[in-house]
Amino acid sequence: MSVSPASVSDEPLTPAGRLFLSPEFDTIIHCIIRGKDPINIDAVKPTIESSLMLQHPRFCSLLMRDRNGNQYWKRTEVDIDRHVIVINGRIETEDDSGAGEEDDDEEAVNQYVADLSVSTPLSTDKPLWEIHLLMAHRCAVFRIHHALGDGISLMSLLMTCCRKIDDPEGLPTLLTKRDSGPKEGKWWDGLCSVLMMVCFTFVFVLEFLLRATWVSDRKTVISGGAGLELWPRKLATAKLLIQDMKEVKKAVHNATINDVFLAVVSSGISRYLDHRSQNGLQKGLRITGEAMVNLRKQLSLEDLTNFIKNNTLLRLGNKFSVVLIPIYCRKSGDDPLQYLKQAKKTVDQKKHSLEAPFTYKIGDLVMSWLGSKYASLLNYRIVCNTTLTISNVIGPQEQITLAGNPVAYIRVNTSSLPHALTMHMVSYAGRADIQLLVAKDIIPDPEFLAKCFEDALIEMKEAAIATAKC
């Protein structure tokens, strides 16, 4: 079966696409969707074949290179049978502990994806995406090259293949940010706000430039470095409840789910470092995470569907920036809500700056003026000089189906980076799963690290409930 391309001209790669295709990164996004029922291949293939995904140019284009070495996209026919890879047998796991079937499935799928994350490129003789169907584990693993789009746009496209479980014709609901509009206030309040924005932007952009040169985090037991992207990986999952996160955010005025997420990261890493470090957690330790920030207004799935069906010019490639997030570690015994207060302060300062658009423009200028080699070097240095990667993608609010199969969970991660720890959270139907991809020779126990994050949220929830009763 094949999908014919539309008659459109070839397109050059975007700067971000060239970066993600560079040898230093070659980044692939993995999206794991587990069904509650056995997978029906005869239903999956037509669903994907008729989806909006395959109407988007990037999903039916080959990566080509001209005589001058310039890369571009060339439209082609899509043979769905070459993109759907069926794995019939059960995946053997390293640790056969005799756990329940669902736990065994999760461990097997995590191991399979962890192995894919290192040195398993996508073939360039077809469009840069695949779907691996793990039949015995009821899982579909979507492998999509990051050059095709960022996490927000790819999640939106993927969700157009799905339907609400209680409405077979209804598209899933993805939260979109509301425009709060201009805030009213006295003129000197506006002046102070502008001055603060200028100060924060200057400090944060200066740190970004220093991280691209020689300034690096203090070494810990979870630090990575150059060449680490080639080391073997393990994958574990921290499972959180959105309702618990909402309960925690009530404890601090105007806190958000993102604030709670960062607080959980800080608390969980503090617990892990205190457990792993020979002399305990270093006092005043601060490490740095790379956080991905979307710079594009997120469309509803209905708007996205109309744009693509009407052949409206719509760029769904990569438009995100990197901001540096300080993570402050504390000794156990401190008030757990201090993590949330610090996280909110940090996030508010980042929101009140122009760090994201400035760092995006710096990368764009380096790519345009100096080429992909120096742009890759800039980004590679920043990754090597920080400790971890953090991202958060909003998934469907309600339960959904894919090809008629009810979805149990949705999880996302990427191929390996020089970081020893990358964290990707996706929310779905009241839960938030964090995929922890680790270099297993540095972090040999990612399951314990996942439990540190789960326990951190529970402790903060108990503290928030106790505070509310006072």
Question: What can you tell me about this protein's structure?
Answer:
With 470 residues, the protein is of the alpha+beta class. Helices cover 37% and strands 23% of the residues. It has 13 helices and 18 strands. It has helices at residues 15-20, 41-49, 80-83, 101-116, 151-159, 187-211, 242-249, 257-276, 301-309, 337-351, 355-370, 372-384, 446-469, and strands spanning 2-3, 11-12, 28-35, 61-65, 71-75, 78-79, 84-87, 129-134, 139-145, 162-164, 233-241, 286-294, 320-328, 388-394, 400-402, 405-414, 421-428, 431-439. It has a seven-stranded mixed sheet with strand order 7-8-9-3-16-15-10. Strands 11-18-17-14-12-13 form a six-stranded mixed sheet, sandwiched between helices. Strand 8 (129-134) and strand 9 (139-145) form a beta hairpin. Helix 7 (242-249) packs across helix 8, helix 7 crosses helix 13 and helix 8 packs across helix 10 (337-351). It is globular. Mean pLDDT is 87; it is low at 4-8.
Helix-strand makeup class: alpha+beta
Strands of the largest sheet, in order across it?
A: 7-8-9-3-16-15-10
Mean pLDDT over the residues? 87
Shape: globular
Number of E strands: 18
Helix count from the secondary structure assignment: 13
Question: Whole-Å distance between the termini?
Answer: 65 Å
Task: Show unreliable segments.
Answer: 4-8
Largest sheet: 7 strands, mixed
Helix content: 25-40%
Radius of gyration: 22 Å
Assess the beta-strand content as a share of residues.
15-25%
